[in-house]
């Protein structure tokens, strides 16, 4: 039995219109998905539900343990926030010390008022994670939650979003750097010298004395033999004898 050419043409026209309609629907869905809200790079916008944030793919922040400079300065950085010696506030104010405080939320706890006072006399507040875990080897989402979570805490309490981050224990991997960048971190700060609880300096590598540009870490000690103020004052006396002073770390690192 023959086929009516007019009927064939009509069916072909219907199929073409249906194809155009389907293509239009697909294009519209693509536009709607691409226009979803975004919190910034790497936040996972437009990804399938439950996929989590997408790892950062842009430039990674540098990792520094010293600053290349000819100026006779070193940089004082304090970790965790467990030691809340009230006399330390007076020392920072009287000496006009540009110290950097890397704070951990679970360690600081209810002591944020102490650090607000320190900030008011010139200290800068930086990121040391929410709960102080060793980050290396953890999944991207977990590392990002630790770093971005502390960014949000410091922003809500002090109105600041730190540009510097110190990984707990100094351990990190490429995933850490990606998560840090995704959270707005411009530099990951390690250290070359440590001010120990007894007031002595130890060194990770290189010469066993301070050089210009060295970053000094002051960890929170358990029942230290000297208070935070006493240790810092002794270090300042040593620096003065060597013709050195404390510089502001944020003036040298963390710029993009």
UniProtKB/TrEMBL annotation:
Q: Give start and end of each NodB homology domain.
A: 72-247
Positions of region (Disordered): 42-61
Q: Which InterPro entries match?
A: Glyco_hydro/deAcase_b/a-brl, NODB_dom, Polysacc_deacetylase_ArnD
Q: What's the superkingdom here?
A: Bacteria
Q: Please give the name of this protein.
A: Polysaccharide deacetylase family protein
- The source organism is Streptomyces heliomycini
